[in-house]
Amino acid sequence: MSKSIGELATLCLRNLEAYDFDGVRAMCTEKATVWHNDGRADQTIDEKLEQLRPLAGTVGSLRFDIARQFHSADEVLQQHVLRLAMPDGSQSEVHAAMYFRFDGYLIDRMEEYVYEAGTA
Q1: Would you give the DSSP letter of residue 54?
Q2: Per-residue pLDDT reduced to its tens digit, 5-59
């Protein structure tokens, strides 16, 4: 494998930016799970991707700007800002910390903590 797990975590987000949900799925284990700090239970990766599919028709573009990323042998922790541009020209951003756990070179677990950024 020529890519590090840090590069693979970034590639996963780039696939989401391109609405390549099949590409994201191919990067995950069969039993991959996703957690968000929204108070809901874990989701399978398939449930999460099905939830994200409508973005392709409602969001003009999205971009993950990674502020920092740390990784060990099988884990990546990063801070990023998700920037969304809507078809009407409006824009918004979501600040988040995200954790990826890998099984080999496949993502086995994702956890995302979304938080409201304070004003400067």
Answers
A1: T
A2: 999 999 999 999 999 999 999 999 999 999 999 888 899 999 999 999 988 889 9
Closest-CA residue to 29 (of 112, 108, 111): 108
Q: Which domain covers residue 17, as residue numbers?
A: 5-115
* Angle formed at CA 25 by CA 2 and CA 33, multiple of 5 degrees: 105
Q: Is the pTM of this model over 0.85?
A: yes
Give me the torsion for CA of 36, 40, 44, 45, rounded to 10°: -30
Instruction: Yes or no: say if 59 and 45 are a contact pair by the CB < 8 Å rule.
Output: no
Is 43 part of any domain?
yes
Count of the separate structural domains present in the chain:
1
